[in-house]
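Need residues for this backbone.
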């Protein structure tokens, strides 16, 4: 290695066996990094709040919910599930100083479309019977607004959480609009 060369140089050529997705990441990131100027941001979220929302590919939390880089934690999982997000919420609040929680579920959520029995049978079909316990709970929900209310109530009732400013919302994937539920 030539003197002065970085010890871990960035590759400028795509690996020959890279998938389209990997190539896309490398290519788009190169463009992104070329004009990146936010390297000075602090670790704790500047606006001291966190968002729990669904992993749904149609939701762009930064744009739809007005979150600038460095402002908030965004915790995503299937359904925007509060229980699933608890580990991250605890870290966000107790170790990184966030005070307010915004929970956003959405119309057309996959979690409205199956039952535990359905999901268990698909997993058994794909990966083998018994790989998951028959009591495994995917936490699907049949009623969107009720699920928002239930999650907010669950968060409010959780003694380990501090900063109980918690609101619940529904994002409409059809219109891009967000409405408050609780
Ligand atoms: Zn969803």
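Answer:
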């Amino acid at each position: 290695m030539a003197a002065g060369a970085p010890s871990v140089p960035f590759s400028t050529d795509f690996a020959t066996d890279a998938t389209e997705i990997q190539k896309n990441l490398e290519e788009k990131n190169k463009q992104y990094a070329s004009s990146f100027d936010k390297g000075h941001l602090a670790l704790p979220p500047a606006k001291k709040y966190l968002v729990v929302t669904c992993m749904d590919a149609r939701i762009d939390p930064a744009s739809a919910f007005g979150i600038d880089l460095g402002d908030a934690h965004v915790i995503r999982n299937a359904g925007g599930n509060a229980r699933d997000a608890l580990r991250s919420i605890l870290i966000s609040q107790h170790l990184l100083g966030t005070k307010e929680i915004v929970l956003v579920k959405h119309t057309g959520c996959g979690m409205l479309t199956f039952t535990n029995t359905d999901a268990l049978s698909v997993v058994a079909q794909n990966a083998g019977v018994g790989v998951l316990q028959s009591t495994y709970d995917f936490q699907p929900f049949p009623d969107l607004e009720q699920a928002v209310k239930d999650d907010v109530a669950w968060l409010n009732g959780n003694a380990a959480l501090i900063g109980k400013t918690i609101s619940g919302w529904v994002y409409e994937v059809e219109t891009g609009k967000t409405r408050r539920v609780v």
